[in-house]
């Protein structure tokens, strides 16, 4: 059991603070107490908060609205009501709509009285704190809930659903009325109060035997007979390819049960023909009275009757979880109020919901059916080995990045690879420059004129090669003195280059001849000058 003496549970996740919450219609006494009367019923709103769904079971409940204590901060104006509203308070739900959180609940209009009053309106109570206050746990503070607005359509058990349509959020209000279900669109827009927008469309009407109380299939102690037809407590939920409506049928005693309708997730939800339903209850006393769902409970809590008024949420792993209320079986109270609205032994339980191959929700699997006890403990062997040695990339190709400094030679010169740079392409796509020790440079024939291809080979893999070209030209030959025509065999002087002969004769160049002629002229001029000087002395 998750919540003692709490009916009509609403379990939800708040994405603004990362917490799960649980609430329900409140009784002021414990489920096992002997009293069962109106004065202890439906007089406040309590709320639990925890990081996980499992944590909600033992979380502290905070009473955030209690009309008989007055309105927080406005006690002078509303000393015994919540902004003029009071008990009974039924089936509150919490929804974020148009960027704001709201409590959606059935209330009685007027001041509190000893025995309460029947719900006659559904109201929207806004959260007035800021985003930071939500993270700080502000949902649990009474002063953060503001003045209500009436939502026309039904007096209680109203729920809200939202999906994306044409790229925008579209909300829907689902109302139970006259043993039927009616769906209306909500007014949307940032900061807009989400009242009904348009007409209420009829999408379901009571039609099945199990929706008629005593006609419902229950254990053999059932007293057959006619009873009132009831369709109430709807909840809309999307999962996978479908939108689901779970609703309760029959009276709130052991005959209470849960059924499910569904429509394709892109269907017109306001069209009755979009919806299909099963011919049997999805969850009823036949499923719960043996204690199959209370296997972890003790004493009277194990066996339950009348499971209904559910809400659905996704847990931390994305699984569907259902919160529902049910009574102990057999009934622990006696008298005319036993098993009725004012018997406080309707408690909240939580269980898993499965999805069948056809997409229908299955609420009736027990823990043993979901996972056999023998399969609940799994042994895993983990082997820890040495860390993997990083794989060094290998060379997949080489190329000449820079040719040698000298690539033109004459016959007989010595080849030099100075300045040669070889680059390697690696298997991981990178490149690197190789050291000279990583490759060999092929031999070059320098004795003959021609264009020479020089091959470079990777030492580690002689299949990887690259090449470059050098040019070898003929050596230039010097001339010889000869017959006076400039030809000769090179036995004389070689224009400044070292000669090979021993001839000491005059050079044949024009510069040398000019030098000799110039000397003769100088001497002649000197002789003339000397003769003139001598004459002047005479």
UniProtKB/TrEMBL annotation:
An example GO biological process term is: carbohydrate metabolic process
For the keyword Repressor, the answer is: no
Region (Disordered), start-end ranges: 474-503
Q: What InterPro entries does the record point to? A: Glyco_hydro_43 (IPR006710), Glyco_hydro_beta-prop_sf (IPR023296), Ig-like_bact (IPR022038)
* Transmembrane intervals: 511-533
Q: Name one GO molecular function term.
A: hydrolase activity, hydrolyzing O-glycosyl compounds
Which Gene3D superfamilies does the record associate with it? Answer: 2.60.40.3630, Glycosyl hydrolase domain, family 43
Q: Please tell me the species this chain comes from.
A: Bifidobacterium longum subsp. infantis CCUG 52486
**Taxonomic path:** Bacteria, Bacillati, Actinomycetota, Actinomycetes, Bifidobacteriales
Q: Where is the Ig-like domain?
A: 403-472
Question: Which controlled-vocabulary keywords does the entry list?
Answer: Glycosidase, Hydrolase, Membrane, Signal, Transmembrane, Transmembrane helix
Q: Give the superkingdom in one word.
A: Bacteria
Q: Which SUPFAM superfamilies match?
A: Arabinanase/levansucrase/invertase
Q: Which family does it belong to?
A: Belongs to the glycosyl hydrolase 43 family.
The Low complexity compositionally biased stretches are: 494-503
Residue ranges with Gly residues bias: 481-493
Q: What is this protein called?
A: LPXTG-motif cell wall anchor domain protein
């Amino acid at each position: 059991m998750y919540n003692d003496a709490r009916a009509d549970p609403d379990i939800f996740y708040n994405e603004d603070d990362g917490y799960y919450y649980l609430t329900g219609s409140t009784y002021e006494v414990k489920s096992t107490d002997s009293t069962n009367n109106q004065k202890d019923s439906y007089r406040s709103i309590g709320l639990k908060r925890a990081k996980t769904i499992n944590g909600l079971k033992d979380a502290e409940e905070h009473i955030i609205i209690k009309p008989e204590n007055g309105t927080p901060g406005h006690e002078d104006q509303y000393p015994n009501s919540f902004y003029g509203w009071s008990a009974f308070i039924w089936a509150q739900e919490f929804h974020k709509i148009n960027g704001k959180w709201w409590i959606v609940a059935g209330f009685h209009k007027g001041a509190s009285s000893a025995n309460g009053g029947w719900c006659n309106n559904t109201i929207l109570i806004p959260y007035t704190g800021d985003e930071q206050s939500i993270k700080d746990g502000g949902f649990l503070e009474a002063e953060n809930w503001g003045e209500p607005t009436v939502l026309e359509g039904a007096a209680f058990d109203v729920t809200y659903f939202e999906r994306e349509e044409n790229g925008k959020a579209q909300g829907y209000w689902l109302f139970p009325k006259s043993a039927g279900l009616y769906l209306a669109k909500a007014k949307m827009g940032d900061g807009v109060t989400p009242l009904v927008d348009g007409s209420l469309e009829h999408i379901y009407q009571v039609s099945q035997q199990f929706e008629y109380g005593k006609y419902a299939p229950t254990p053999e102690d059932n007293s057959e007979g006619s009873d009132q037809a009831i369709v109430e407590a709807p909840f809309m939920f999307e999962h996978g390819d479908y939108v689901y409506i779970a609703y309760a049928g029959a009276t709130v005693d052991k005959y209470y049960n849960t059924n499910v309708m569904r429509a394709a997730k892109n269907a017109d939800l306001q069209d009755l023909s979009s919806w299909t339903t099963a011919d049997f209850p999805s969850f009823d006393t036949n499923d719960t009275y043996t204690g199959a769902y209370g296997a972890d409970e003790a004493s009277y809590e194990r066996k339950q009757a009348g499971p209904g008024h559910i809400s659905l949420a996704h847990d931390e792993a994305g699984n569907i979880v259902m919160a529902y209320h049910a009574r102990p079986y057999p009934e622990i109270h006696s008298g005319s109020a036993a098993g009725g609205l004012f018997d406080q032994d309707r408690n909240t339980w939580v269980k898993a919901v499965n999805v069948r191959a056809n997409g229908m929700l299955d609420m009736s699997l027990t823990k043993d059916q979901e996972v056999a006890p023998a399969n609940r403990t799994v042994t895993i062997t983990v082997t820890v080995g040495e860390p993997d040695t990083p794989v060094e990339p290998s060379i997949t190709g080489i190329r000449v990045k820079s040719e040698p400094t000298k690539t033109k030679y004459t016959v007989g010169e010595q080849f030099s690879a100075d300045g040669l740079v070889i680059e390697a392409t690696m298997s991981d796509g990178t490149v690197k420059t190789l050291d000279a020790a990583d490759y060999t440079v092929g031999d070059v024939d320098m004795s003959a004129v021609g264009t020479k291809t020089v091959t470079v080979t990777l030492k580690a893999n002689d299949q990887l090669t690259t090449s470059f070209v050098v040019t070898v030209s003929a050596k230039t030959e010097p001339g010889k003195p000869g017959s006076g025509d400039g030809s000769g065999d090179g036995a004389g002087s070689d224009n400044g280059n070292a000669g090979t002969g021993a001839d000491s004769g005059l050079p044949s160049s024009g510069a040398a001849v000019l030098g000799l002629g110039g000397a003769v002229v100088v001497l002649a001029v000197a002789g003339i000058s000397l003769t003139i000087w001598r004459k002047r002395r005479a």
